[in-house]
């Protein structure tokens, strides 16, 4: 089969819609002047999913986020799309069933962000669960997926297990089970979902902070004051109904509006990243911790391995969360228990990241036993609060949210009018599974045309499908010659990326995967944003310092 020329592909290709600072300003103008059906507060995956769902129904939707999209919990996950094998032990079969079926849908609608991955679950003598019981769990896991699994589980002997994972501890190994789940780019899944909501007509803007509400004579919220963190100006948003998707900030936000009884049991989770040279995993490894019934994953992802997560109660404000010495020691001890010959120490850690899960208090005896089911709390004050839930089921959560809101707050005529969403459609029409595969096949010709290596263009194609062509073309017109600089320009034009740290932390893996956290590229990438945002020399230095400050804050344990 002959490859099409780049020119032929460009003529056929649907161009990405702009999603830049200009669109932000236009959206704010509309927020000031229009009345909305729905106003969503919170720009993580739950808010993004709700905005896409509502806008795809034809509703008039706006969404505000006080920082960058995905800057809270939604960029600090284990980066897995999975049913949750450990939830079987808690007998949460409904949650596992729902998650496994959502996993199947996400393979189709976000092929450049959600990828199949094999997991090895070793079983040791004296462990909490034996081979027979674990085997029953594996059969149940595959059955709950309704056969929609990349590959059915298989039982491995001790020798076959060591062949799969040579670094694994041999002593006491009874064997293992290998099963399929998926990994993802969590932050970019939020951004892509926002871009999809934008295509459906939702008005979205980051760096807008919610303030005081205005209530009518019967106590219903009718408008919300908002502050633009760039200009300092304040304005009000009017909507028929308001939805809070602020995750671990739920109690704080509710208390700022009216009298509120706390509903959350926030839980802190941290992850470490290592070089695959130090822990060369081909498959993910599931590490059970007998003492506290948690599961820790070792997840190969591109050039790094992610290890996590912890699960401890967290009572401080969510923005203060960061990794500490005890968190790091805990994970290193588990790594050493499963991979003693690797001799992983603090010096091998590239990065750490931490987040707060917005779990809903249910009286469970421990954090790890607290349910991951989502809760939708509709109040008579014209605000619906959403908390809990799993990343994997965000699309289903969004549907549930909108069905509750439509039932409680809208007329029968509106419920019929807005009955159907379109969230099973591909998130980005330029990147279907077939088009992604085709784009990857074009990487060699793109390398020759744009003066890059095939590895560089292949990585662009894997991350962006045929949008990689837009990245290359925009970059060439701007006189850029390195992929990360080209991606920075694209991020500014098409992902509402406004700060240097937003790009380094949430549009790329540079902070987590690079030993130098991308500092070697910092000046060049900052120059891209300088031209786009018209920064002064002082602003450029401030932006670079903010990124460095994040590193010091998140990884303070290294100096401690």
Radius of gyration: 23 Å
Mean pLDDT: 91
Largest sheet: 10 strands, mixed
| Alpha-beta content class | alpha+beta
Q: Gap between N and C termini, in Å?
A: 59 Å
Give the overall form: globular
What does this structure look like?
With 560 residues, this protein is an alpha+beta fold. The protein has helices spanning 6-12, 21-33, 45-56, 93-109, 131-144, 158-164, 186-199, 250-257, 325-338, 394-409, 412-417, 433-441, 443-450, 454-464, 467-477, 483-494, 500-506, 510-513, 519-533, 537-554, and strands spanning 35-41, 61-65, 80-81, 114-124, 154-156, 173-184, 203-206, 208-215, 221-228, 234-244, 267-275, 284-289, 294-301, 304-308, 312-313, 349-357, 374-378, 383-388. The strands form two sheets. Strands 3, 4, 5, 6, 11, 12, 13, 14, 15 and 16 form a ten-stranded mixed sheet that branches. Strands 1, 2, 7, 8, 9, 10, 17 and 18 form an eight-stranded mixed sheet that branches. Strand 12 and strand 13 (294-301) form a beta hairpin. The termini are far apart. The relative contact order is 0.15. Mean pLDDT is 91; it is low at 365-369.
């Amino acid at each position: 089969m002959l490859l099409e020329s780049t020119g032929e592909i460009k003529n056929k290709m649907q161009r990405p819609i702009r999603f830049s600072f200009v669109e932000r300003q236009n959206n704010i103008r509309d927020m000031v002047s229009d009345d909305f059906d729905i106003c969503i507060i919170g720009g993580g995956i739950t808010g993004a999913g709700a905005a896409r769902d509502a806008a795809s129904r034809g509703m008039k939707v706006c969404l505000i986020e006080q920082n960058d999209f995905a800057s809270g919990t939604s960029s600090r996950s284990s980066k897995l799309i999975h049913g949750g094998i450990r939830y079987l032990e808690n007998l949460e079969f409904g949650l596992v069933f729902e998650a496994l079926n959502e996993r199947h849908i996400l393979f189709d609608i976000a092929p450049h962000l959600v990828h199949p991955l094999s997991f090895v679950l070793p079983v040791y003598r004296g462990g909490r669960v034996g081979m027979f019981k674990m085997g029953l769990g594996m059969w149940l896991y595959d059955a709950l997926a309704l056969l929609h699994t990349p590959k059915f589980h298989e039982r491995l002997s001790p020798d076959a297990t060591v062949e799969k994972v040579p670094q694994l501890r041999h002593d006491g190994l009874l064997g293992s089970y290998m099963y399929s789940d998926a990994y993802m780019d969590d932050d970019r899944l939020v951004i892509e979902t926002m871009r999809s909501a934008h295509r459906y007509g939702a008005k979205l803007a980051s760096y807008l902070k919610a303030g005081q509400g205005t209530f009518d004579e019967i106590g219903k919220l009718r408008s919300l004051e908002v502050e633009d963190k760039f200009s300092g100006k304040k304005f009000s948003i009017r909507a028929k109904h308001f939805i809070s998707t602020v995750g671990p900030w739920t109690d704080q936000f509710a208390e700022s509006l009216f009298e509120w009884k706390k509903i959350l049991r926030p839980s802190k989770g941290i992850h470490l990243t290592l070089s695959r040279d130090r822990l060369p995993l081909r498959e993910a490894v599931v590490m059970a911790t007998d003492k506290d019934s948690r599961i820790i994953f070792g997840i190969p992802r591109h050039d790094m391995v992610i290890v996590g997560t912890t699960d401890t109660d967290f009572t401080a404000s969510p923005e203060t969360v960061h990794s500490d010495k005890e968190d790091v020691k805990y994970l290193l001890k588990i790594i050493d228990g499963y991979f003693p010959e690797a001799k992983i120490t603090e010096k091998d850690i590239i990065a750490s990241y931490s987040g707060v899960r917005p779990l809903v208090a249910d009286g469970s005896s421990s954090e790890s036993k607290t349910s991951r089911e989502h809760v939708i709390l509709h109040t008579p004050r014209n605000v619906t609060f959403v908390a809990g839930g799993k990343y994997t089921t965000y699309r289903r959560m969004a549907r549930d949210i909108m069905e509750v809101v439509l039932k409680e707050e809208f007329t029968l005529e509106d419920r019929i009018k807005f009955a159907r969403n379109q969230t099973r459609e591909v998130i980005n029409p330029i990147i279907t599974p077939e088009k992604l595969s085709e784009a990857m096949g074009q990487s060699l010709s793109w390398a020759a045309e744009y003066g890059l290596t095939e590895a560089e263009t292949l990585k662009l194609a894997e991350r962006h499908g045929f949008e990689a062509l837009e990245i290359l073309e925009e970059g060439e017109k701007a006189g850029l010659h390195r992929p990360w600089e080209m991606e920075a320009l694209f991020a500014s034009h098409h992902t509402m990326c406004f700060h240097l740290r937003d790009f380094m932390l949430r549009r790329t893996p540079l902070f987590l995967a690079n030993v130098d956290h991308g500092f070697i590229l910092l000046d060049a990438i900052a120059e891209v944003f300088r031209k786009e945002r018209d920064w002064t020399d002082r602003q450029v230095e401030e932006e670079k310092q903010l990124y460095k400050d994040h590193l010091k804050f998140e990884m303070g344990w290294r100096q401690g």
